[in-house]
Design brief:
The protein is built from seven helices and five strands; from the N terminus they run H-E-H-E-H-E-H-E-E-H-H-H. The chain is α+β, with helices and mostly antiparallel strands.
Length: 229
């Protein structure tokens, strides 16, 4: 391969690394052209599956700052550059490898960090982004429903109380005038009469000593007369 062609190939791999969320390295020895086409079709928009030369892939990985690829870049190598859901791409590769043992997953890279084959398998066992978002949305809706219930409970109690007061006011309109003002006035009248009654009786109590005074003077006069006699 001419030097210019190598540089162009390396630049293309570098661009694929930079544009992807992650990458999975595979060995495709023994796979037919049709099987490779089926693999690309199964990955869909989640990944771009490309056959690469190991030497050029090493140079490209070094340029983008990825380390730990040298041991993986042996034998016929193809890289799945993940552009969509990382978990879905890992699942697609895992499922295809189960059906076609000639495909061997050697490792990969995610967020600039190298992954071994076991870590890629664990990534494939995770739930998809859509499922996780659905569960998150369900949890948020459940929490929101609980919050709405807690907020509405006092309002419902207040509404029931208002309804009870309205029903009571319809039966007794005086409640709307400040809370039974007329009965209170009626209660004050007997109290006023009770206060005035002792006032009428007071002069009678004061007149008794006035009537006793002449008797006392009479007794004094009798005693005086008796002394003189």
């Amino acid at each position: 391969m001419a030097r210019a062609d190598k540089q162009a190939a390396v630049a293309e791999i570098v661009e694929s690394f930079n544009d992807s969320a992650g990458a999975v390295l595979t060995e495709y020895r023994g796979l037919t052209v049709k099987q490779l086409q089926d693999l690309r079709r199964s990955l869909g928009e989640n990944a771009n599956y490309a056959v690469v030369k190991n030497t050029l892939a090493k140079i490209a990985a070094t340029e983008v700052g990825i380390s730990g690829f040298d041991d993986l870049l042996t034998g016929p190598t193809a890289i799945a550059f993940i552009n969509g859901d990382v978990v879905e791409a890992a699942k697609g590769l895992r499922d295809f490898a189960k059906a076609n043992p000639s495909l061997v997953i050697k490792g990969g890279v995610l967020d600039g960090k190298p992954l071994d084959a076991a870590e890629v398998a664990k990534l494939a066992d995770l739930e998809s982004r859509e499922v996780l978002l659905g569960k998150l949305a369900g949890a948020m809706l459940a929490s929101l429903s609980q919050a709405v219930y807690l907020l509405n409970a006092p309002l419902a109690q207040a509404a029931r109380l208002a309804g009870a007061l309205q029903a009571k006011a319809e039966q007794d309109p005086s409640i709307l005038a400040g809370g039974a003002g007329t009965p209170a006035a009626a209660e004050e009248a007997p109290a006023a009469e009770a206060t005035e009654a002792p006032a009428d009786e007071a002069p009678a109590a004061e007149e008794a000593p006035a009537e006793e005074t002449p008797a006392a003077e009479a007794e004094t006069s009798d005693e005086g007369d008796a002394t003189e006699a």
